[in-house]
């Protein structure tokens, strides 16, 4: 049994999700026990800086270094806090904060290798906590020609697959991603798993709430505001013509595509439509839902028997209801839309748990990617190892 901390801040930039877990086994016998989970919000000024950089704000190299260290410091503090009243962890897996993601073979890249930058240096976290830290998980997959995302599919396979059910594990963070899991009883089931980023999750919704409230709110709790409106389906159909939704997997995306610039285009597209604030939020919700359902119909080998939601969007009751309605509109049999909580894995901290597992696998020399999901040329161990140099260790307060 190894006690591991998983840390991640997703594309919504809400704060650091921290999970303290006990892990045993390797793959088919992999077992995890969640001991503690907590989200630690960013200090407001730091969050604003991160969002500005994600939106393309220019900063100097000195400012980039300062931002990298500032993020590492709050990640390290989260790791310290999550251990309160628990024995110390032996390992940390830190995803960090993505500030830029460019898939391979895009017009901007003109190269077969993608690029993904996560801030929050693992070596700083290791020295501040005194715990070996593994970070920078995406670069090894990218170096092998992969997208570097989604990286959770292999963990989904061993924690959430079922002997007889076809399942979709749908994460709805700032960006949505799916893992399709065929039954474990199926021949070559691991090689038959597929997954991809489905498009915007909460990113556009959060931007809309901030815009509509002049920044006084950051999200629509339970989707209550959106539920008061009526979706504008012509707008949804227009937005679904975006090239990303037509692109076949492997594929990944981020705020670079579905961020501030895209949101401004959505606002411009409202001209000619008389929509209330609730209608606008309902329409953006419908885009998230429709993009998920369309991708299932276009790219899955078969429709799932069950959909399990995780991430912040799994708490959006209106989004969940609309997903169930859309998913079952043409289905021959009912497809339940549940959360991973209902099969024993925390929907709130699943992503943090995943990076704890990836760190554990890195030390076990077990590959962390699935080539058919990321597009990499081979399975490979993921993450850079940062050992503790006790002579350098500093306190968090002194940094």
Largest sheet properties:
7 strands, mixed
Gross morphology is globular
Instruction: Name the poorly predicted regions.
Output: none
Identify the CATH homologous superfamily of the largest domain. ATPase, nucleotide binding domain
Compute the number of structural domains.
2
Helix content: 25-40%
Number of helices, where a helix is a run of at least 4 consecutive DSSP H or I residues: 14
Distance between the termini: 33 Å
Average pLDDT for all residues: 95
CATH class wording of the largest domain = Alpha Beta
CATH architecture of the largest domain: 2-Layer Sandwich
Radius of gyration over alpha carbons? Answer: 20 Å
Sequence of secondary-structure elements: EEEHHEEHEHHEEEHHHHHHEHEHHE
Number of strands: 12
> Which strand-content bin applies to the residues?
15-25%
Assign the structural class, choosing from mainly alpha, mainly beta, alpha/beta, alpha+beta, or little secondary structure. alpha/beta
User: If you consult CATH, what is the topology of the largest domain?
Assistant: Nucleotidyltransferase, domain 5
Looking at this protein, list some descriptive labels.
Nucleotidyltransferase, domain 5, globular, 36% helix, alpha/beta, 14 helices, five-stranded mixed sheet, 20% strand, 2 domains
């Amino acid at each position: 049994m190894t006690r591991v901390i998983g840390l991640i801040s997703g594309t919504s930039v809400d704060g650091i999700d921290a999970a303290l877990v006990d892990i045993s086994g390797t793959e088919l016998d992999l077992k995890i026990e969640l001991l503690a989970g907590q989200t630690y919000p960013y200090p407001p000024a730091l969050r604003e800086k991160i969002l500005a950089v994600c939106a393309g704000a220019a900063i100097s190299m000195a400012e980039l270094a300062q931002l990298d260290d500032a993020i590492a410091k709050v990640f390290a503090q989260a790791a310290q806090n999550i251990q309160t009243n628990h024995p110390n962890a032996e390992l940390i897996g830190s995803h960090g904060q993505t500030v830029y993601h460019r898939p391979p073979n895009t017009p901007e890249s003109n190269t077969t290798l993608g690029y993904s930058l996560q801030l929050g240096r693992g070596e700083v976290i290791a020295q501040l906590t005194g715990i070996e830290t593994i970070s920078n998980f995406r670069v090894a997959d990218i170096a092998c020609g992969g997208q570097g995302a989604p990286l959770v599919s292999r963990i989904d396979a061993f924690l959430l697959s079922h002997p007889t059910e076809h399942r979709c594990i749908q994460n709805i963070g700032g960006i949505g991603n799916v893992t399709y899991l065929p039954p474990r009883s199926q021949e070559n089931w691991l090689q038959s798993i597929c997954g991809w980023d489905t498009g915007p999750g909460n990113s556009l919704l959060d931007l809309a709430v901030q815009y509509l409230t002049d920044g006084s709110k950051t999200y629509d709790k339970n989707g209550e505001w959106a539920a008061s409106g009526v979706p504008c389906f012509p707008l949804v159909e227009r937005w679904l013509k975006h090239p990303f939704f037509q692109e076949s997997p492997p594929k990944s995306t981020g705020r670079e595509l579905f961020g501030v610039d895209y949101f401004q285009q959505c606002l411009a597209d409202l001209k000619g439509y008389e929509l209330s604030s609730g209608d606008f939020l309902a329409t953006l919700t419908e885009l998230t839902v429709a993009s998920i359902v369309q991708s299932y119909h276009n790219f899955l080998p078969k429709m799932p028997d069950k959909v399990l939601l995780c991430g912040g969007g799994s708490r959006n009751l209106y989004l969940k209801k609309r997903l169930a309605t859309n998913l079952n509109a043409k289905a021959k049999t009912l497809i339940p839309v549940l959360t991973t909580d209902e099969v024993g894995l925390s929907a709130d901290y699943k992503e943090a748990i995943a990076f704890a597992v990836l760190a554990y696998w890195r030390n076990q020399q077990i590959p962390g990617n699935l080539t058919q999901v990321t597009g990499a040329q081979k399975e490979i161990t993921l993450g850079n190892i940062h050992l503790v140099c006790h002579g350098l260790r500093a306190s968090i307060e002194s940094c």
